Amino acid sequence: MIDTVELQGMNAEQLRALAMELMSEVRARDSELRLKDTRIAQLTHEMAVLKRWKFAARSEKLPAEQQSLLDEAIDADLIAIEHELEQLASQPKDKSPPNKPRRAPLPPNLPRVEIRHEPTSTTCGCGCQLKRIGEDVSEKLDYTPGVFTVERHVRGKWVCAQCETLTQAPVPAQVIDKGIPTAGLLAQVLVAKYNDHLPLYRQERIFERAGLAIPRSTLAQWVGMCGVQLQPLVDALKEQILQHRVLHADETPVAMLSPGKGKTQRAYLWTYCPGAFEDLRAVVYDFADSRAGEHARNFLGNWKGQLVCDDFTGYKALFAQGITELGCMAHARRKFYDLHAASKSQIAQDALQYIGELYEIEREVQQLAAQLRLEIRQQRARPIADALHAWMTGQRARVSEGSAIAKALDYSLRRWTALTRYLEDPQVPIDNNWCENQIRPVALGRSNWLFAGSLRAGRRAAAAMSLLQSARLNGHDPYAYLKDVLTRLPTQPASRLEELLPHHWQLPQS
Q1: Which residues form the domain of 350?
Q2: Residue 113 CA to chain centroid, in angstroms?
Q3: Among 100, 264, 421, 427, which is 20 to 30 Å from 454 by CA?
């Protein structure tokens, strides 16, 4: 703050400059407040819509399993929105809502593990020895496959007899503040849902067989809260992926439930990962409600590099903005393979022979150093590619317009430059198979959970699957990774968040 004396010592020019600076600061704060108010209004409206879907009478008649999955998604969405609203509010909530149900005590028959938290020193600041006068006990529910246990956290109370100073160890930070689940139980729920593709209503039955029926609404709240807490980690992983100059991209359809319509609509899970020859092993999934190219543009932002993808038109606008297109030889081969399987075409068989020779060379150079890989590609693969292009051009002049073989030839000829850029750069792969392999777990999930319960649920699933699949790519056990991340995340400084990314994470020594 500037006091009156300082103001009196300023000339007119300095006062104008100061006024302009203060006005600029006020405008910036006003803009920040407007953005916050707008976001709060958006979240409040979304919460009202979700509550109407959950509690109001619905004319749509959904099957029992669909209704179960919808309720799971809504419960998780509601708790996630509430948490975001608390973060946006200037003051965190001090009191629970008056209608919040009282938590039932954990069953006494469950085995208990006692964990004691005591001060590091029992000597008071005045020099006197502290005296233990009591303790606070909180219980948290833990789970290992098939077995529930209870962690009893005992925090002793110590007081100085002379100055009456009370000393007590702090409450350990948790992902869900004042909640009963341990990081191990939360990791189990998330891994089962997003890695093993078990909906929460199935997990509810599994937990019931283990001795404690946890309502799926409670499980959904845990999932929603964890989704909010893990999002900064996924954002950091995305930033690291976008630092690489060669990326793969692909997309696959996923059904998404539309509660207002009583049926599902087609959504898409977009997949992005560094090139197969890059040193980073990671994948980030991005859930969107359509296949529009704007989703890829929004994800990549200002990134300018080389993108391996198929011939989907949604990527075309990216190439006009400075991104280099890299073709997928596997897609070109697939056109001829389908033709040969259907009609035993001799032209298709010859094309497969040429492409097979290119792949044989790629198998040989896969593990070689980049410079040696480039030299072998130039010496051996380039002549084959040139011969294939000349052969395709000659065959295209002979076949009828609009025929199946003409379409197969046109696909490769139109994209020939993109298909053969890998011959000039040792870091560029021949195809997009590396990315397609990362979509396979999603295909398995589709056959189990059938559809996403909402747009938020799809994005939450994408975030969790990004971390779990990246952990697997780096050789980690997804459960061990996520349990440790959820344990450390509440106290991890933002400046050291990268330590929890799958490619940097290391299992702590016991």
Answers
A1: 238-457
A2: 33
A3: 100
Q: How far apart are CA 471 and CA 230, in angstroms?
A: 14
Task: Report which listed range, 12-26, 59-73, 146-160, 473-487, is most confident.
Answer: 473-487
164 and 265 share one domain:
no
Domain count, the chain: 3
3-state secondary structure 261-317: CCEEEEEEEEEEEECCCCCCCCCEEEEECCCCHHHHHHHHCCCCCEEECCCCHHHHH
- Is residue 47 domain-shared with residue 130, that is, in the same domain? no
Quick: pLDDT tens for 447-486: 555 456 678 888 888 899 999 999 999 999 999 999 999 9
Q: Are strands 147-160 and 130-144 parallel, antiparallel or unpaired?
A: antiparallel
Question: Which single residue is written with the structure tokens 């929603």?
Answer: 224
Domain boundary (60, 88, 116) is at 88
Question: Is residue 283 domain-resident?
Answer: yes
The CA–CA distances, whole Å, from 411 to 205, 312, 328 equal 51, 12, 11
Closest Cα partner for 457 from 247, 254, 180, 159? 254
pLDDT in tens, 80-101: 767 677 776 654 444 445 555 5
Confidence (pTM) = 0.76
Q: Could you give the residue ranges of the DSSP H alpha helices within 89-215? A: 183-194, 200-210
